[in-house]
């Protein structure tokens, strides 16, 4: 199994042992193999991401291919308030690489404004990013433009919540161990079938102290989306697999 919703493992064997988990990692490894421990840690991490409606996923790395949609970022005509840049999604953004026409752009030539708008900088200040590209070409070729960046966060409360869940799942596969979560909840988490959380899942997860703290900070359930056309950015971000 690999991560389906979380972008990184939110706990580790050392954290699980340090938290005083009653599971026996050596027995689990002997009986089921190291891959089972890794799968359970992945499942616990996915559970936290799903339970927080994807607001806590850890640090994610994405590469996007921007194309201009021709719409100014300011209401009415473009004015001094407009920032000619590419608005990137997610919190705590760090740009790791920019390519134009297949060539890596010097990091000194771009910067983030307001934490999420990538602009030309330094010697390239005043220049615009390419407004079009050929998405069917890899970003190592001419007529392409790509941005690779990391985003997201992993608060300590989420790491502890994932540790609690992983401990419970590992206890369940330890001979003689008793779990807090119902079996149907474990199956839903480990199969990663859907993002929909049923009441029994939320009730089961709320049995853990750190999960209660996590829910207090990031209440479960879908979050409202506000769309305003006058603040839409100039670029549409595409991902190419």
Description:
The structure is a single chain. With 241 residues, the chain is an alpha+beta fold. It folds into two domains: 13-56 and 154-217, no CATH class; 60-152, no CATH class. The chain is built from seven helices and eight strands. Helix 2 (25-32) crosses helix 3 (34-51), helix 3 (34-51) packs across helix 4 (156-173) and helix 4 (156-173) packs antiparallel against helix 7 (209-217). The chain starts with 12 loop residues before the first helix and ends with a strand.
Give a topology summary.
Elements: H1 13-18, H2 25-32, H3 34-51, E1 60-68, E2 86-87, E3 94-100, E4 103-104, E5 110-113, E6 117-120, E7 145-151, H4 156-173, H5 183-191, H6 199-205, H7 209-217, E8 235-238
Helix pairs in contact: 2-3, 3-4, 4-7
Summary tags:
241 residues, alpha+beta, 2 domains, three-stranded antiparallel β-sheet, 7 helices, 8 strands, 16% strand
